[in-house]
Amino acid sequence: MEMIGKLIDIGPVRHLTGSLINRNFGIEYLGEAGPQRAYFQLYQYRCNLLDRFRLGDLVHVRYFIRGNRWTGEEGVPKYYNNLVALDLEEVLLDLNRGLGRSLNIIVTSQQ
């Protein structure tokens, strides 16, 4: 899956257990119901992909959805999803070629 949006949050690298590390980041994108926000997770060596970006940058995210099942103390299973990023690339806008118009709400919200 893929998504393009404005980088709105960059979290710190977190050491979870043993050698497992992760880092979260958020983007704002134009969804079917207007501006939306999505938060992604990076794991292991991919955590450093965020180092070259700053808040407000437009990024192209390749990701997959990880579905999880968790059973709490009550014994009732609960389900949740994580968006796990695989790759991040900078988006360069050429306003004369149309991409800027399709991302208009993201571009103008940077001001």
Task: Walk me through this protein's architecture.
This protein has 111 residues and is mainly beta. The protein has a single domain (2-108), classed as Nucleic acid-binding proteins (OB fold (Dihydrolipoamide Acetyltransferase, E2P), Beta Barrel), CATH 2.40.50. The protein has two helices and six strands, in the order ββββββαα. The chain has helices spanning 99-102, 104-108; strands spanning 2-10, 14-17, 20-31, 34-43, 58-71, 77-90. Strands 1, 2, 3, 4, 5 and 6 form a six-stranded antiparallel beta sheet that branches. The protein is globular and about 55 Å long. It starts with a strand and ends with a helix. The model is unreliable at 104-111 (pLDDT under 50).
How many structural domains in the coordinates? 1
Subunit organisation of the chains: single chain
Based on the coordinates given, report the CATH architecture.
Beta Barrel
**Radius of gyration using CA atoms only:** 16 Å
Shape, please?
A: globular
Instruction: Estimate the mean pLDDT confidence.
Output: 86
How far the N terminus sits from the C terminus, by CA atoms, comes to 29 Å
Q: Count of helical segments?
A: 2
Would you tell me the structural class of the helices and strands?
A: mainly beta
Helix content: under 10%
Query: Would you tell me which CATH topology applies?
Result: OB fold (Dihydrolipoamide Acetyltransferase, E2P)
Number of strands: 6
- Highest-level CATH class: Mainly Beta
Biggest sheet statistics: 6 strands, antiparallel
Q: Extract low-pLDDT stretches.
A: 104-111
- Note the beta-strand portion: over 45%
